[in-house]
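Issue: ligand-bound run for S-adenosyl-L-homocysteine - logging full I/O for the record.

Environment: standard queue, default settings, no custom constraints.

Inputs:
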Amino acid sequence: MPDLPRVVLKPRRAQPFFYRHPWVFDGAIHKVEGDPKVGDEALLVTDKGDPVARGLFNATSNIKLRLYTWNLDQPLDDAFFAERIDHAIRLRESLCPSWSESSAGRFVFSEGDGISGLTVDRYGDWLSVQFTSAALATRKDAILAHLQQRLSAKGIVLRSEKGMNEAEGLDAIDGPAVGAEPPRPVFVEEHGLRYGVDLLEGQKTGFFLDQRRNRLAAARYATGRVLDVFCYSGGFGLTALHTGGAKQVIGVDVSETAVTLANENAKLNGLDSKTAYIAKPAFEALEEFAAAGEKFDTIILDPPKMTRSRHTVDKALKGYYSLNKLAVDLLPPGGILVTCSCSGLVSREDFEQVLATVVMRTGRAIQILEARRQSPDHPASISCPETDYLKCYICRVT
Ligand code: SAH
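Outputs:
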């Protein structure tokens, strides 16, 4: 058995870790032996002392130990993480060998790639990297050097996730970290359209890469007058105009910056005569459309995460209900509803129940044409259900 500090589990708490869930929460731990510091390797053992896996320790985080290997002889050194990163990159290269689908993609998806706490997005020659684990961030310099070399990046910017610095005891600072500073914006291509992406200040890491395949799938069904709610930089609506049967797009987003981005992207692609973007809260806009007796042939709902805690799931479900009900009321019989939820804590069953409640209260029927997930460069891990977070239902409302 390797000579490492040991994290000893409480009785009957080992099962998830034999199934390879990578997060060992405080509540599952009986005691920690050997005084590991943040970023030190530790061995997870059962209450009987049987070894389970190797991980990186962080006393500050609620996730005390993040597990990376079940091979007990494998040290978690720089070579180990470089190999894991290469493994993740090879998947993306096989998914998108010629960059024909897009010049942007997620190259490392944290737990989805067995690298809990690291996210890497590529935008052309530039990388945007997020550390969501202070333990893994102790290896930041080696990881960034490897990424730059392996992906021939001109530069890397670091972005932090909301609330993560406090939760992990990270002192991450957003901004350029390695190589040159990226232009603002960086231009990327997706489904034959060009988009400007602001790597330094854009939402998330600048673009919602997880919806890539869904934007194309939704476009196949989109017709006529399209309402793109929570449009951000315009992706769903613009794809519906470019590759689908959409004739006109009205986009709504509460953020003025997002509306400016969407307008710029519409112009960049010569589609601005068919688009109009409104900076307004979604509920307000939907209610105003209803009051004015407006109808849309296709409505896309892609709201931000509505809950980050189990305690607020019910509130989120009510929010999803109101939103979907308002949208259904604006659709004529035969209209298309593309409805998404990126709240990992809201299950597919819960989300379908929300739609069932809309049916009950409106008397309209909803047919699911496609029930989709996030794009495959965000692979979900069977061992970590939290990675399977995005739901995108393409429906016909009669
Ligand atoms: N559909 C987009 C991504 C949407 S992300 C795409 O494909 O790129 C969610 C968006 O919702 C963000 O742009 C955010 O500014 C916006 N948003 C958040 N709260 C909102 C609200 N109450 N009303 C309208 N938009 C909101």
